[in-house]
Amino acid sequence: MSALANHSFAKMNGIGNEIVVIDLRDTASGITPADARAVATPEGVPYDQLMVLQKPRLAGTDAFVSIYNNDGSEAGACGNGMRCVARQTFAGGDKTALTFETKAGLINCWQGPAPDLYTVDMGTPKFGWQDIPLAEEFRDTRGIELQIGPIDAPILHTPSVVSMGNPHAIFWVEDIQAYDLEKFGPLLENHPIFPDRANITLAHIVGRDHIVMRTWERGAGLTKACGSAACATAVAAARLRRTNRTVHMTLPGGELTIEWRESDDHVLMTGPAAFEYEGTFDPKLFASVA
Ligand SMILES: N[C@H](CCC[C@H](N)C(=O)O)C(=O)O
Fold this sequence. Notes:
Elements: E1 8-14, E2 17-23, H1 33-39, E3 49-54, E4 63-69, E5 74-75, H2 79-91, E6 97-102, E7 105-111, E8 118-121, E9 160-163, E10 167-172, H3 181-189, E11 199-207, E12 210-217, E13 221-222, H4 227-239, E14 246-251, E15 254-260, E16 267-271, E17 274-280
The structure holds 2,6-diaminopimelic acid.
């Protein structure tokens, strides 16, 4: 039987990014992709990402956190989800800073700068073709030309590619609403250039300290916000010398502040995390899970 049967969960959101947080640190268990898909069904708790806290594996860390998209695929990073995990973990204890281990590395979190805000150190961005990753024939990342749709359709081309522990392709456009992301998103997400698929962002640079964006997420589709995409987009814009290293990001679900810190290249993301309700998983959800 799944470790989730009869287990409690917290339904949260990170500026509209639908998050479920499960704390399995009191068990020796983890979950399977089939468990993640079972939770995402309409009979379960529909979400964009599932954040599973497990027993710490490294000394000095508060938990190992596994991240699942609603299609059951695992991801190395989830910025909005980490703010939700931080809020839940701060609420349950007396700490002012937390360290989580994820597939992509260590993530430090702290409350602030305002009472309802949380800051997450998302680590350092990676730009190499093997880091994203890109298919080897596209190793020259400057030459990526992606044309999607009929020739008279708007052509999305020359994306910036960045890994924040998960793959991101960012297309710079004048109008982020001018493209049918629900149509083009899955085509680009699954393009052979991205052997691990990719998160696809449309971004418009408003000024040197402000970007508006929206994202088709790998494994989850169109979401109201993608924190790691906001980090990747802010870094890519600064790298193109089109913005400062601290940028205000406007996403469909809300606002984030991203700082690509000059001293150590770490990317700090600040934003809210909302608690919605708590519940317990009905064991019937997992009846067909092996
Ligand atoms: N879909 C992403 C994971 C969730 C990222 C997003 N929700 C965030 O806040 O960073 C991926 O497969 O890489």
